[in-house]
Amino acid sequence: MVYNKKMRLCVVGAGRVGTTVAYVIAKKNLSWVKIKSISSRTNKSLSRAKKILSPVSKNIYYTQNKIEAAAGSECILICTPDDMIEEVCVEISSGGVDLKDCIVIHFSGSKSLKVLNSAREGGAHTASVHPLKSFASIEDAIKTIPGTVFGVTSSSERAKNVAAELVKILGGSAIKVEDNKKPLYHAAACVASNYLVALINYAVAIHERIGIDPHESLEGLMGLVEGTIENIKKMGTKKSLTGPIARGDIGTIEEHLVNFKKYFKEDDVVLYKLMGVETGKIAYQNKWISGETYKKLAKILEN
């Protein structure tokens, strides 16, 4: 279903997500949906948003007053940090803004729709739209947001339709996320993105401990990482596994651990062992190693 009722949008929060979303929508120059206003806590973020958005829209109202920004909007997008969403929603709901039949959407991956209860009590339809994407910079996000998958949760059919159309405008696709399971949905995103950063940092630290320059290490490792990601895209996670554990080379893993003891403290080896056990599970599930080899591997890594 295409939702094409005329709609004026207010964006609360002019950070990376809010400014990116506003820019992409404004640049489409659709007749039925317009960015009416943008609100943010600081003049600095508002000025940055205005500079970025001015080339694609001259009619946006910029203000630090979120009540003024929200008034008269058919759809309010709350793009603030997660822990501020409920507070912002309560402020708008209690500030005299008519929310009857308004659509209020937040962009948090972990927060449930409960943080928008004050808007719902005022007659609004609520939803959350979370991009499975890292927003390192606004400029980069604007270029790369097409093709993004969005986790969508909604409180009504109308909210669902508006959220789906918003995802479509942003060039993405949607997956349904149950409201009471959002923290686990978000945890998976953190593992895939944030923990990946920590894992590569760990690999660089291992190299640095044996005298390899971190910049040279990262340059070398990124080729390996990028190749692995391409394999995952083509074959999925389990079939993309390579390396000594996938081959059942227990002797190689034992050499790793012997050398860790020479150069590292025991605490520094914990992550290697934990990931080794998980890698062994994949190799065993793939039937690339026998049950006996898997047990030996687990025993070595768990000691």
Which structural traits does this protein have?
303 residues, alpha/beta, 3 domains, 8-stranded mixed beta sheet
Number of strands: 8
Percent of sequence in beta strands: 5-15%
**Molecular shape:** elongated
Total separate domains: 3
CATH class of the largest domain: Alpha Beta
Cα separation of the termini: 57 Å
Could you name the CATH homologous superfamily of the largest domain?
A: NAD(P)-binding Rossmann-like Domain
The radius of gyration is: 24 Å
Task: List the SSEs and their pairings.
Layout: E1 7-12, H1 16-28, E2 33-39, H2 43-53, E3 61-63, H3 66-70, E4 75-78, H4 85-93, E5 103-106, H5 117-121, E6 125-131, H6 138-144, E7 149-154, H7 157-169, E8 173-176, H8 182-209, H9 214-235, H10 244-247, H11 250-263, H12 270-285, H13 291-302
Parallel strand pairs: 1-2, 1-4, 2-3, 4-5, 5-6, 7-8
Antiparallel strand pairs: 6-7
Helix pairs in contact: 1-6, 8-9, 12-13
Written account of the structure:
This protein has 13 helices and eight strands. The protein is an alpha/beta fold. Strands 3-2-1-4-5-6-7-8 form an eight-stranded mixed beta sheet, with helices on both faces. Helix 1 links the parallel strand 1 (7-12) and strand 2 (33-39).
Summarize the model shown.
This protein is an alpha/beta fold and 303 residues long.
